[in-house]
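Session log. Operator J.P. requested a structure for one protein chain; no other inputs attached. Running the standard single-chain path with token output.
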Amino acid sequence: MRQQNKDMKSEIDEKSLLIAAKAGDADAENELMLLYKGFVLHLSRSFFAAHPDCDPDDLAQDGMIGLMKAIRHFDPEVGASFKTFAATCVKNELASSLLHKKTVNTVELEDVEGAGDPEADVIENEKATELYFGIASTLNETELEVFKLFLNSMTYDEIAAELGIEKKKVDNTLFALRKKIKKLLDKGKK
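Structure written below.
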């Protein structure tokens, strides 16, 4: 009975903290960040286990950014618990961060390897064009617009403003795009 009362009290406290944080209360947001810090670190460590070449502190920071996004965008009316929503946001932020870092490292490596070889550059450009059209053919209209703007180095905020959608929609769309692109690239290797 005591445990049940304690769980109900902590659930009520969490809800009131979420409401206050969404209303701009920085103390409530900080309290939620502290409350879920261990949960975020657990998720970050699982990503680090799969990607040991990454800096664990960077992953932890990225996870906390995902938690901040979860706090700011959580809607209790949707029906999911905050913990479920936070886990999704944190995992999306970690995946997005890993993909971005992997892309940046790959581009830097290709710049060094391909320097001074025009024929290789032409072949790479043809492959990139073929990949772009292969990807574009599998996307819906919104995904295609987000993809084009992202390729033009626009930030999530800029893309959201340009298309008149929420930043979270941009984040979710890019996450889905990355999965589709990975699937296409994996299929191309076979």
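Operator note: The CA atoms of residues 18 and 71 lie 7 Å apart.
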